[in-house]
Predict the structure.
Amino acid sequence: MGKCPFHNLDKYDPETLQEDRLMIVANDVSDMKQDIVVAPVKREWMEETPQRFAYRCLPLNTANDLGWQILCPHSVEVYWNGRNGINDLSVQVDGSHHLASSHFGNGVLTFNLQYVFRTTKNQCLYLKGPTNHPKRGIYALEGFIETDWLPFTFTMNWKVTEPNRIIRFEKGEPFCQFFPYQKNYIEEFEPTIQTASQGTMEMYQKYAKSRDSFNEHLKDPESDASRMKWQKYYFQGRYPEDDHSVKCSDLGFTHNTKSGTKPFVDNREKPRSVFHTL
């Protein structure tokens, strides 16, 4: 039997193979200069909502900054004529031709990544478009990649949904977002549907009654509720008790208002020019 070409995989970023140390290593194999940044909470459309009310939704905030984003090093323009051939999607890049292209046909725009990502054994990466960042005429496709063993780069793909119009990614705009996810993690869960218990129903009804009353008063600009701060039960990790004093932390739960994502530490020594995609 011949020797596996990856027989020395244990010498390839060996720290990423330690199961007791959670790591993500981005191995730079190209010279496209794609910046990796911690995903920000801010979104342009959220900034434009009245009194920036969209930020009052904590699930939006914590999803926004979960993981990292990769930024376009050059602007990209796309035009799709609606047909399915590879040449039916026109892609123009103001810079490296390696950045984006029509690779699969069917109106799919493909971004190449300049990194071979390696993660701790049994840890993978979930790749998607920038969270809560809608873009007209094009939709980000998502992927789950086993980066604990993969020695290749992979691609980020977007499906054009509106033909016969120009779609543009600006320089510095994020074209993907990713975060770690444990392999087979979802298989450990036992999903169940059941009738709500008495305690759950009482808590839910108390919250629903309070919320309905608050929302009704908000319709009147002269009411006290319209000048009050929002209830923020979830934002503050509180239960809807009358005195507002009971918090989930009192019962041993944790409550996070931000993801705590750490930035990548740049340990690159010199630029690379080799480029191959999965």
